[in-house]
Amino acid sequence: MKLLIIEDSSPLRRSLVVGFNNLGITTDEASNGTDGLSLALNNPYDIIILDLMLPGIDGMEILKQLRQSAIQTRVIILSANSQHQDRINGLLQGADDYLTKPFSFDELHARVVAISRRGIINNFTNTITINGFILDSNTMRLRYEEIDINLTPNEFKIIEYLFNHPNQVMSTAMISDNIANNFDYISKNTIEAHISTIRKKIKSHPITATFPLKNKRGFGYYIEN
User: Fold this and answer.
1) 159/198 Cα distance (integer angstroms)
2) CA distance 102 to 180
């Protein structure tokens, strides 16, 4: 695992770097928003730990620019502001978690581990083609040749997660962890209903190819490639 820590407080930043390095986790660090954004845009990371109050470019603007650039690296916001609306704004801008200062290193590490279990997103592969079906993470579209398959946000997230892990069986719990934020839960029945709807939408089009979504009974779902 590789983390990017963007934090202007030198003592806190160094303590996080040392703590994660001692756990065998590789880290890059930035003390200001300008350097942090440059690193985040040009390097692959599993998770970014992002302070909001930064010199140069603030953390919320960094998060906004990352999402506008279709970079979906997991982001944990660190903030001294515990206001409920700030937490909501951070999550709506695309953060995966929000931790208020002061916090314990053990709690931050636990959140990093939990988020990493949601799967790895390849920030540099924006389209994936399997059996003629094209998934485009930039435009949030699934299509076959010139046929658009209109999916809801959660339906798209399910397919995106499975397309990014071809031939790997994913349980409904793993799918739920991946497509929900850190404070929500999507039930097994709801996920199965989404998958059923996806299949119906595909069958409603004149598509001769077989959609590669498979079910391993009792275990979960996978995309066959």
Assistant:
1) 9
2) 26
Place of tokens 């620019």: 65
> How far is 39 from 186, CA to CA, in rounded Å?
33
Q: What percent of the chain has pLDDT over 70?
A: 90
> CA nearest 11: which of 89, 101, 136?
101
Over the Cα atoms of the chain, what is R_g?
19
Structure token pair of residue 207: 């598509």
Q: Quickly list DSSP for 117-148.
A: TT----TT--EEEETTEEEETTTTEEEETTEE
CA dist., res. 137 & res. 156, Å (int): 9
Angle at 170 (CA atoms; ends 164, 171), nearest 5 degrees? 150
Of the candidates 139, 140, 120, the one whose C-alpha atom is nearest the C-alpha of residue 47 is 120
Q: Fill in the DSSP letter of residue 218.
A: T
* Residue 136: other Cβ atoms inside 10 A: 16
Q: Summarize pLDDT for 44-90 with one digit per residue, the tens.
A: 888 999 999 899 999 999 998 888 887 878 999 998 776 666 677 77
108-125 pLDDT tens trace: 999 898 887 765 444 444
Give the integer Cα–Cα distance in Å for 145 and 216: 28
Alpha-carbon distances of 104 from 19, 100, 144, rounded to whole Å: 11, 10, 48
Q: How far apart are CA 20 and CA 28, in angstroms?
A: 11
